[in-house]
TrEMBL record:
Domain called Myb-like: residue spans: 9-61, 62-112
Key word Lipid biosynthesis present: no
Keywords recorded for this protein, A-Z: DNA-binding, Nucleus, Repeat, Transcription, Transcription regulation
Molecular function in Gene Ontology: transcription cis-regulatory region binding
Protein name per its UniProtKB record: Uncharacterized protein
InterPro entries, alphabetized: Homeodomain-like_sf, Myb_dom, Myb_TF_plants, SANT/Myb
Compartments where located: Nucleus
Ribosomal protein among keywords: no
Major location (coarse): nucleus
Domain (HTH myb-type) ranges: 9-61, 62-116
Length: 306
DNA sequence: AAATCGGGCAACCGCGCGCAG
DNA sequence: CCTGCGCGCGGTTGCCCGATT
């Protein structure tokens, strides 16, 4: 499936770029700009796929790119944004001047995720691994559905009132950890920046509790650009979506049980379109309640870095 | 000194989305 | 409305190089 190759693979060079190729591409883009990438190889005299040219330019040749190591502040920002956005590397990279999505992605995969694991934090959900295991155990003891009932959903069923109540109570104790203090105990403490997603679960319950049709309450708050609602939505969404294993599974719950998880997805998509994610991120980062950069804790106080 | 291993990073691949015809 | 195309994204691969045995 998918679109056909953008170029004749038999006649294009692959593999590492040479200095000569770099010079040709740079010379072309500096005089003609980066318009139609498919025509760039031919015009620049390169036997490369246009896609390859674009990648080389954006990840390596583009002006103002930083090639030095990531700073402590950048590390913290990446972890914070990953907790909010997940693996949306281009959005994260947008907040890091001079960094590309590939840079951020590689740095996360090779360094930051390992750092988090070493601190006992799941790099996907940003929650303590011990809490995650406890959550999985709680889900596992849920009674099986009655005969003839719909197949079990991939996600917790939020309109199942007793189950929801128990789950909500449990998650009130759980938090999304966005910062790791290398010198502190692994368990989150009050000094660290934490994102509570139980708030969103509460919104979800209030908005469409036992049999309400749609998660409008939480979604509405998010669309207004409210930092607390938005942050809580993100935290809950990541937690459930990734525990389940794939984002596709988030929407695979029961019809009216989409609840928190689907509200999260809808909210993200709607906000991307309607208000621009950059603006949202800026608002969130400006709020000291959600990111220490606005005041409160400095990098040194957090002790980030190993 | 040679072989092996593992980390880091550049590059590739497949897919979704938006747009124009 | 449908189709094809270009772009951008996230996931993955594979090479390079330093560390270790």
């Amino acid at each position: 499936m998918g679109r056909p190759p953008c170029c004749d693979k038999a006649n294009v060079k692959k593999g590492p770029w040479t200095a000569e190729e770099d010079a040709k591409l740079l010379a072309y883009t500096s005089t003609h700009g980066t318009g139609n990438w498919t025509s760039v190889p031919q015009r620049a005299g390169l036997k490369r796929c246009g896609k390859s040219c674009r990648l080389r330019y954006t990840n390596y040749l583009r002006p103002n790119l930083k090639h030095e190591n990531f700073t402590q502040e950048e590390e913290e920002l990446i972890v914070t944004l990953h907790a909010m956005l997940g693996s949306r590397w281009s959005l994260i990279a947008n907040q890091l001047p001079g960094r590309t999505d590939n840079d951020v992605k590689n740095y996360w995969n090779t360094k930051l995720s390992k750092k988090l694991r070493q601190r006992g934090i799941d790099p996907i959900t940003h929650r303590p691994i011990a809490d995650l295991m406890q959550s999985i155990g709680t889900l596992a003891i849920r009674p099986p559905p009655a005969a003839g009932a719909a197949p079990p959903p991939c996600l917790p069923v939020f309109h199942d009132a007793p189950y929801f109540a128990a789950l909500q109570h449990q998650h009130q104790q759980q938090q999304v950890v966005t910062h790791v203090d290398a010198d502190a105990p692994a368990s989150p403490d009050s000094q660290h920046l934490q994102l509570n997603w139980s708030d969103f679960l509460a919104d979800d319950a209030a908005g469409h509790g036992a049999d309400a049709p749609a998660p409008q309450a939480a979604l509405g708050q998010y669309q207004e650009g409210s930092a607390p609602a938005a942050t809580a939505v993100v935290g809950g969404g990541r937690a459930f979506g990734d525990v389940d294993g794939a984002s596709a599974g988030v929407g695979a719950g029961t019809d009216d049980g989409a609840g928190a998880a689907s509200a999260f997805i809808d909210a993200i998509l709607d906000c991307d379109k309607e208000m621009g994610v950059d603006q949202l991120i800026a608002e969130m980062l400006a709020d000291p309640a959600y990111y220490g950069g606005g005041g409160g804790s400095s990098s040194s106080e957090l002790g980030w870095g190993c």
